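Box 4.2: Ligand-aware structure prediction
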Amino acid sequence: MLAWGRPASEEESNAARMDAARRLTEYFVGIIADRRGGSADSADVTTSIVNSEVELDGVTRQMTDQELGNLFHLLAIAGLHTTQGSLAWGLAYLADRPEQRQRLLDEPTLLPSVIEEVLRIEAAVSPGRKAMRDTELGGAPVRAGDQLLCILAGANRDEREFASATDLLVDRVPNRHLSFGAGPHRCIGSHLARVELAIAFGELNRRIPDYRLDPDGSVVSHGSQTRGVIRMPILFTPETVSH
Ligand code: HEM
């Protein structure tokens, strides 16, 4: 157990991650064993997934325990740091831009476009890809087998698509950002994420209209392909808080 206030060492963070992953895996092993042998038409989505057949490499079969474990693991964690990170980046941007924030308070109907703009300007995820064939991207040669890190925030700041791309514009429409990816692996949780962000942003701005980042408290973010924050202290005047 860490003493509050002392940052974890890299070894401690890795050990905590491994332990959490192991416990999550154990949980899913139990769930899969429990649901095996049920009906693929079950109203219980988990039972239905466990007993459905999929076509993989030309063979129709049920998924192995390992494949199902990976699937459930991804489903469980994919919506955590992503949504939390987007919420944190949104607060940080709006804290720095009182005039944009005031517009949101004056015109609550702007909330959906604020959320799209926050998603655009600080894309939470940088997915990895492996090139299947030789090609060229933006003039750079890519060879079959190359590993790529797709910085979606970069695509989202392409001036050919977004005017004043580095500015946060709460009324930006259209906003064809790529923060949820594209193609067959496009985020399956994007609708849920938008609902969560709308509730959290809407309530935070309504109830704590004068928050600002604490100048003495540094923001600590996760250095990984998913950019959430560990810590982001804010200050506000208790008298201005409404319930
Ligand atoms: C702001 C919040 C979120 C962002 C920015 C985000 C972003 C992304 C991106 C960029 C991908 C594509 C990854 C790739 O192409 O390799 C993805 C995939 C995925 N997301 Fe999200 N996501 C968010 C929230 C959620 C939520 C709330 C859930 C579910 C509870 C979720 C579940 C998934 C899953 C399961 C995939 C994998 C889909 C597949 O491989 O077919 N995400 N997400």
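In the box above, the bound molecule is protoporphyrin IX containing FE. The chain is about 45% helix and 10% strand.
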